[in-house]
Amino acid sequence: MVIIQKPKINIAFQEAVLKAKKLNRPVLFSHVRKIDKMDPLFFYHAGLPLYQGERFYWKDKGGETTIVGIGSSFIFRNDLKESRFEDMDQEWKRFIHEAVLDDGLSEAATGPLIFGGFSFDPSQKKEVEWTDFSQATLQLPTFMLTVKGDNAYLTINILCSSHDEEDIIDKYIELINDLLNQSSLLITSQTLKDTMEIAPEQWKKTVDEVVGQLKMGEMEKVVLARKLKVSFEDSPQSDFILQNLLTQQPDSFTFSLEVLNSCFLGASPERLVKKTGEEIFSTCLAGSIGRGKSKVEDRQLGQELLADHKNRHEHHLVVEMIKNVLEKYCKDIDLPKQPSLMKVRDIQHLYTPIKGKVSSSNTSILKFVEQLHPTPALGGVPREKAMESIKESEKMDRGLYAGPIGWLDAKGNGEFAVAIRSGLINRNHSYLYAGCGVVSDSNSESEYIETKIKFRPMLRAIGGHEDEI
Ligand SMILES: C=C(O[C@@H]1C=C(C(=O)O)C=C[C@H]1O)C(=O)O
Ligand SMILES: [Mg+2]
């Protein structure tokens, strides 16, 4: 049983309250401590009764860092089209500048941290299912569990106002002790009523039209996506879907972002960018083929993908673009000459990891997010033209799908994945998204099948069956 005791926190907390009174504006108090390791899903689920709509979950691809946030001490929202990354960066820096940090550990991904997502295209007309999200929605959790290997850390973030009394800390200590001592994991499943593909034939026609434009040399690549609408008997719990994603897609970034009545979640194989101190990591992931039924068939398919001209072209465009961005802001770049294969449960991809060191230590992770998003793995080449084409031909709001999702801490560390293999839950409905890179030698039927495979991870996780589409 973990018990957090008051006296240790008290002095720093009083300092924050006094500072808020002196400045006459809210001041963040953030306390970090090491705790006994616990299952992050237990912690997430413990927050369900009191904090549904204010939780998040993040596990990185290698399972090295898991972060769970419960309760929202502050929510950073931005609806500006042009400057949302820069604004968020500035706002976050200002916010933590005045904070009182009670943190003797200085571990990455602990202490004040914001987690959230950016929409794919802020100039897209918003559809009703995305109402709960802004173009940038990042949450500073009240209680946060960070698990790294065998170590676990608890962060408490309290936004002290000038009217707060020093004893409000008691309320938080009581709440966190309840959350930490949750002893059972009773996650309820839900019944899926109906699954509907949105205009599949129309989508194939659109792919044909775009292929026509690509053949005329108007663009080199456009990523086209489509969606599935799923209805449930009752409003589904994100806990259930998350639990499935964690067990069914162990080699992916797994994320859940609950905001008001919605939850956006998924299991993506694709890193956009990670920053640890001075080090920058990104991933070029594009070009796909299914998994084989046997080891031999699987290896053959992998070899076929590595040798396939159309897929290599799709991939190459992504490598060139990410390389250009890293060359602008980094030194000591390490980029393999040839792609390798990344295999996840349902699909294999061409994969080229890339890393470097920031040339100037004040280049923030959000600068990289701004420069990289959208890579040609989700947008296209040339970027602006492809974005216009997507808006015109897809006729849907991608919302947070294909956008950057992840976290940054007060020390400048962070990681963002590309929010693919994902879906939105909104009351009794869920919307799943999948896309594919269209190039001049694409075939609409094969691209359709590729998106079908990419729906599978989410469809399975929400309790559906792959034959349903
Ligand atoms: C667009 C998606 O995936 C992207 C497209 C890929 C492709 O077309 O080969 C491969 C990986 C992802 O970068 C998706 O999963 O929705
Ligand atoms: Mg493809």
Structure in words:
By secondary structure, the chain is an alpha+beta fold. The protein has 2 domains: 6-180, no CATH class; 193-468, 4-Layer Sandwich (Anthranilate synthase), CATH 3.60.120.10. The protein has helices spanning 6-23, 40-46, 48-51, 84-97, 168-180, 200-215, 238-248, 295-307, 309-329, 365-372, 383-394, 444-461; strands at residues 27-35, 55-59, 65-78, 100-102, 113-118, 136-148, 151-160, 192-197, 221-232, 253-259, 262-268, 271-276, 279-290, 330-334, 340-343, 347-358, 380-381, 404-409, 414-418, 422-426, 429-438. Helix 7 crosses helix 12. The structure holds the ligand C=C(O[C@@H]1C=C(C(=O)O)C=C[C@H]1O)C(=O)O and magnesium ion (MG). The ligand C=C(O[C@@H]1C=C(C(=O)O)C=C[C@H]1O)C(=O)O binds at residues 223, 225, 270, 285-288, 314, 349, 377-378, 420-421, 434-437, 454.
Report the average pLDDT across residues.
94
| Chemical compounds bound to the protein | the ligand C=C(O[C@@H]1C=C(C(=O)O)C=C[C@H]1O)C(=O)O, magnesium ion
- Main pleated-sheet profile: 21 strands, mixed
> Ranges with pLDDT <50 over ≥5 residues?
none
- Please tell me the total number of domains: 2
Pathway: Quinol/quinone metabolism; menaquinone biosynthesis; Quinol/quinone metabolism; 1,4-dihydroxy-2-naphthoate biosynthesis; 1,4-dihydroxy-2-naphthoate from chorismate: step 1/7
Function: Catalyzes the conversion of chorismate to isochorismate.
Pfam families: Chorismate_bind (PF00425)
Catalytic activity: chorismate = isochorismate
